């Protein structure tokens, strides 16, 4: 019987470098309050957002991803041609094929890296980290680029009070490679498609083709349902990630949840009983909700500001449309 050779596995992986790019336009609450019949005070109280960052008409999601990815590769100390695989999580790349990842790999000079997109909305970055970790440890790839990138300003209705006023544009990227010590804990992930309609497009592209009067599809959410799920259910997945990694709240230096809403972040901190000295990512205040990009953007800001440092133990969790979630404990690069 022929015995097939297998890739040589390695014990551990870690994040080697992180990069980020935000939209260049600063959009204040006053800028968007009129069409939703709201105010700066209401938006701050309900969401914690003061500004959100959006990209100009001349920049698309790939432009944002390219800048963030180049920064991550440079921070990792590698060259682009040492990247073996590129994973891009996005819901705002406007062609079904070719993938954003394949184009990104070419722009970066990473050809012939394997490249593919995933659609896991606000959990997408953590999904990508999970896959990058598995690819490196299995021996399938030596270095993997995991990217979350969104230009959500392309799919908003300025008059929508359910989600559009929350959203921003940006990209975050991480290079995952081999490690002599554990750098990425087990991922706790899953989905609940029975609640898929709680965060959704207004209508499908086929509906638009059949009835052009429907107009451009935009995002909507059932705010109270999402808030209750995120505030009171998602925390247990973060706790499970800590348990799987063999750490407790006292071992966590940094907590970076998806930047959905400041009240949700505060509720999760209480649920997890995190000590007061734990640094919490609150990038939503200045950047807004950037879906798949929000966690790496928040981590990059904390590290750039000196609030988090190399070697810190970070708990990260993404959650959103699907409904999907993913959490893992990582060591910061």
Describe what this molecule looks like in 3D.
The chain has helices spanning 29-33, 40-47, 61-76, 100-108, 124-138, 205-210, 223-232, 235-245, 262-272, 284-287, 294-304, and strands at residues 12-22, 25-28, 51-54, 85-89, 114-118, 143-151, 169-179, 188-191, 199-201, 219-221, 254-257, 279-280, 313-320, 324-331. Helix 4 links the parallel strand 4 (85-89) and strand 5 (114-118). Helices cover 32% and strands 24% of the residues. The chain folds into 2 domains: 12-179, Peroxisomal Thiolase, Chain A, domain 1 (3-Layer(aba) Sandwich); 188-331, 3-Layer(aba) Sandwich (Peroxisomal Thiolase, Chain A, domain 1). Helix 3 crosses helix 4 (100-108). The chain has 333 residues and is an alpha/beta fold. The strands form 4 sheets. Strands 1-7-6-4-5 form a 5-stranded mixed β-sheet, sandwiched between helices. A 5-stranded mixed β-sheet has the order 8-14-13-11-12. Strands 2-3 form a two-stranded antiparallel sheet.
The total domain count is 2
| Rg (CA only) | 19 Å
Topology pattern, helix = H, strand = E: EEHHEHEHEHEEEEHEHHEHEHHEE
Going by helix content, strand content and strand pairing, the class is alpha/beta
- CATH-derived architecture of the largest domain: 3-Layer(aba) Sandwich
**CATH class bucket of the largest domain:** Alpha Beta
Give helix % range: 25-40%
- The H-level CATH homologous superfamily of the largest domain, spelled out, is Thiolase/Chalcone synthase
Mean pLDDT level? 97
CATH fold field value of the largest domain? Peroxisomal Thiolase, Chain A, domain 1
Shape: globular
Strand tally, please? 14
Low-confidence stretches: none
How far is it from the N-terminal to the C-terminal residue, by CA? 45 Å
β-strand percent reads 15-25%
Number of helices: 11
Describe the largest sheet. Answer: 5 strands, mixed
How would you write the strand order of the largest sheet? 1-7-6-4-5
């Amino acid at each position: 019987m022929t015995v097939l050779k297998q890739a040589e596995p390695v014990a551990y992986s870690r994040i080697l470098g992180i990069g980020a790019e935000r939209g260049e336009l600063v959009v204040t609450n006053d800028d968007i309050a009129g069409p939703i019949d709201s105010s700066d005070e209401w938006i701050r109280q309900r969401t914690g957002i003061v500004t959100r960052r959006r990209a100009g008409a001349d920049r698309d999601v790939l432009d944002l991803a390219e800048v963030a990815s180049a920064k991550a590769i440079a921070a990792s100390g590698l060259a682009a041609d040492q990247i073996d695989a590129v994973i891009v999580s996005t819901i705002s790349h406007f062609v079904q094929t070719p993938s954003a990842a394949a184009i990104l790999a070419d722009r970066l000079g990473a050809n012939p890296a394997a490249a593919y997109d995933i659609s896991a909305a606000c959990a997408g970055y953590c999904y990508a980290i999970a896959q990058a970790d598995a690819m490196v440890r299995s021996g399938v790839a030596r270095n993997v680029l995991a990217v979350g990138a969104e230009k959500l300003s392309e799919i908003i209705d300025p008059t929508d009070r359910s989600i559009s006023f929350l959203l921003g544009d940006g990209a975050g990227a991480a290079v995952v490679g081999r490690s002599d010590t554990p750098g990425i804990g087990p991922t706790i992930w899953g989905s609940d498609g029975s609640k898929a309609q709680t965060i959704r497009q207004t209508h499908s592209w086929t509906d638009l083709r059949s009835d052009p009067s429907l107009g451009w599809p935009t995002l909507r959410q059932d705010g109270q349902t999402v808030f209750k799920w995120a505030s009171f259910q998602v925390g247990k997945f973060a706790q499970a990630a800590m348990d799987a990694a063999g750490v407790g709240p006292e071992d966590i230096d940094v907590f970076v949840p998806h930047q959905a809403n400041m009240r949700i972040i505060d509720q999760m901190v209480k649920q997890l009983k995190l000590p007061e000295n734990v640094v919490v990512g609150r990038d939503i205040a200045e950047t807004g909700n950037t879906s798949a990009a929000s966690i790496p953007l928040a981590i990059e800001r904390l590290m750039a500001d000196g609030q988090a440092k190399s070697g810190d133990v970070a708990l990260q969790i993404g959650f959103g449309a699907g409904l999907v979630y993913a959490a893992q404990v990582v060591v910061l690069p």
